[in-house]
């Protein structure tokens, strides 16, 4: 997913921090369902939908609601008329949201790429950048957080339960296939141990 933002800058919500290096973007975006939220704090339809999206996101990622945050990241792509309007809107939204900086022409590129003509729009993407849902606004309104399970399955995410707890902090710095390889290695070791036990039992019985 970081490939979509290669050479681009994302802003951490309510902070001046820029998330722009390949490593930082990889850590923020890899192995997660990505929501691109096209909206505006001044649009009446967005003002109705944004609180729903905020609640949706918090119920999947905030420790008040869940023990472990879902593999979900959201990037706000605004149509606000001024930087102050964008900042004011983001101050009312979750801190974990990322945003395309105000005035960045990359916003127009994203609109064209994902055929976004009206707001609000929520484009749901797999970690590899493939589209899961072209606009999930109605799905979120209708199903709430329950629709994330469908996206998770469609995205074929590597479940973080596969990772050893002590490895997880360092995992995002490595290839996304590492946990799969480690899991296969552990399974191979188990199979090898079982085969050895069977062989020994066979020798004892003979």
Automatic annotation (TrEMBL):
One of its GO terms (cellular component) is mitochondrion. Residues 1-142 form the Thioredoxin domain. It comes from the Eukaryota. GO terms for biological process: photoreceptor cell maintenance. PROSITE patterns: THIOREDOXIN_2 (PS51352). Pfam families: Thioredoxin_8. SUPFAM superfamilies: Thioredoxin-like. This is NXNL1 protein.
